[in-house]
Amino acid sequence: GEWSDLRSLRRTDRQSEVNGARLLAIMRALPQAIAFVDAYDPRVLINRQAGELLGLTAGEVVAADFAAALSHLVSRCAGADEMRDRARLMLADTEGRMRNWIWRLADGSSFLNVTTVPVIDSLASGRLWVFEDISERERLIGDLREARMDAETASEAKSAFLANMSHELRTPLNAIIGYGEAMQYGIGGTLPERHLDYVEMIVRSGRLLLDLINDVLDLSKIEAGKQQLTIETVDLAEIVERAVQTLLPVADDRGIAIRSKLLASPLPIAADERAALQVVLNLLSNAVKFARGTVTLSLTVPAMTDSLHLAIEDDGPGMTAAQINRAMEPFQQIENVPYTSQEGTGLGLPIAARLVALQDGSLHLQRGGSGGTLAIVTFVAAGERRAVKVQ
Predict the structure, then answer these.
(1) For the residues 341-349, what does the mean pLDDT come to?
(2) Looking at residue 391, what is its pLDDT?
(3) Are 51 and 34 in contact (CB under 8 A)?
(4) Of the four, 55, 186, 307, 362, which is 20 to 30 A from 119 by CA?
(5) Greatest C-alpha distance within the chain
(6) For 135-171, what is each residue's pLDDT tens digit?
(7) What contacts 146, CB < 8 A, 6 or more positions away?
(8) Helices marked H in the chain — which ranges?
(9) Cβ(347)–Cβ(330) below 8 Å
(10) Would you put residue 246 in left (φ > 0), alpha (ψ -120 to 50) or beta?
(11) What is the pLDDT of residue 9?
(12) DSSP for 156-176?
């Protein structure tokens, strides 16, 4: 009986050696620095990468030597005292759960991603330590973070500059337009017919340039955090009527019919009146620009919500999903539409989207039932007056 027990113990020891050799072979094949701390064996298995990191010989090392080497490595890291306590707890924990934290050398030269994983199965029982050098990744992240901060600073400076140029740009341009109109009306004397044509071109070009400048400045003020809005109760039906009356001459000139299916006034919403009017004007102007013959306005009030959905649909060629995404970006225009003018900065939709968002609403574009573009702008129902400023 004693001989049989001895043979059984020898087989167990032999199997333990085989399992250890297999585990060490697997660890050697992995690129990371790995150490296995056995729960019942005073020896620790480490691969070559772990040996180089800890200053130990690869293979089997005494647990006390591994703990000392680990403590020495931790002492070189930032926050060494706290990390040493955590490492000590991890060495004593053979079960628990997987742990992960980043060790940074005090001089900032290197970063280690340290992961400890409990191993409990028929071959081994203990905790696996995995050390991965992530210094290059951390440096890249730092460079990207710094580049992003530089880009944001530059963008803020650009937006602040443009936002502060309102008076300098608009004042002389308004003077040009004003004097041109005065010449058109014969103030100061009647001009020859040929000169009147020139003056008309000057006034028209001046108004177009003023519109472009206003769009750029509006977007810049929003991005620079200088767009001040006052949210109060306003009538959406009245705002839509004003927008329609403003664009009727343009629509009539192009042969476009604007059909409104809105409910009777009032339609109270919580919005900034000027900003809401600008949103509707931008969307309606865009619809008239691309329509072939008809622009339709309609309104829905979803049940159990505090919002109103204003829909503006044209019967134009419509846009693909890619074109919609492009149109929502500043300074982008939809090309290959031969019967529309390409005048403008491509800022109408981006400005409308940002102004709606500042008023807690939303703007969504999609293909309409007639094949054209359907713009759905959501306004919040009337609420308490408040001031909003982008920060």
Answers:
(1) 63
(2) 39
(3) no
(4) 55
(5) 132
(6) 888 888 888 999 989 888 887 777 677 667 766 777 8
(7) none
(8) 2-29, 48-54, 63-75, 80-92, 135-163, 166-184, 193-223, 236-254, 273-290, 321-327, 348-358
(9) yes
(10) alpha
(11) 52
(12) HHHHHHHHTTHHHHHHHHHHH
